Amino acid sequence: MEPGPAITIHWQERRLGRTLLRTYRDTVDLYDIFPNEKQPRMGPKKDPELQRQIEANEGIFEPLLLEPHPDNRDKFRIIDGDRRWENSKILVEVQKKDAYRLLPAEITDRTLTDEERFRVWIYIHRQRREWDTKEKEMVAYSLVNVVGRASAANILGITVRELDKLVEIYDLSEKLTNLVEPGASITWAREIKNLNKKLLSPTVLDNIVRKINEQEITNSKDIRKLRQILKDPVAKENFICSGGSIETALRTLGPAPSKKAHGLLGDIEQISESLQRYSWTTLAALKGDQQVLRKLEETEKLLKELKKALSR
Known about the structure:
By secondary structure, the chain is of the alpha/beta class. The chain has helices spanning 48-56, 82-93, 114-126, 135-147, 149-156, 160-173, 185-193, 202-213, 226-229, 233-240, 246-252, 263-276, 280-285, 290-311, and strands at residues 12-16, 19-29, 33-34, 64-68, 76-80, 102-108.
């Protein structure tokens, strides 16, 4: 029996950021493809909307980017396209639609190193809209766990300090578990992390997270108001206490600062503002204090005499 004709592979060069790949196009059976166990994107990949798009397009709309599997020369491993592969698999196995078993693919001529694979994946995803949602924080968090802080920062092209902030934001977003829109957790986390670090003590942070999860704070933009509140000891105490809120804390700050009056009028305004700033918890603790009551009587008498003198 004569051998069949040799298959001609049409190689092409594809530059993805700093990485130059040599690839060819082909179709690959779903079951000859394996996911990447070091995939930077975490979480569930099942997506009914993506499944509908695959069906409407009569197949995946963008070829998978694959590399030769390091442990099986006849198989391939995903560089980019885990979600497309996973949802095609669901269509085949759950909905019994074998038409989606053959997948278009772009295949590299070699198995990439971990660093090359990460760089390629990140370059591709930076071109997509998802990168501005939760993607960059999630990837930073994932990379640190796989390659460490220094290498992760190098791969992302940022400083270690910038990397640490992304990781902290992602970690915080995972603690916000009861939002009306769970996908907005990263927006909330970013707002919180933009607060002055010196003002964001563990106690304050725990209370912010609790109030968000209990839906006492329902708008992420309201977090910005804490910049003013946390600078003031009385307002801060009001916010942290049980029953306290951003609104009640803001009220303890009084009206926005205006041009200060001078002389006697300025002194009276200052006394008034100082008294208004005391929280109800502080006043409750002073109830029955004879020394405070005596001083109030003296001050009240002085103010009455002052009013009488100025009214003549």
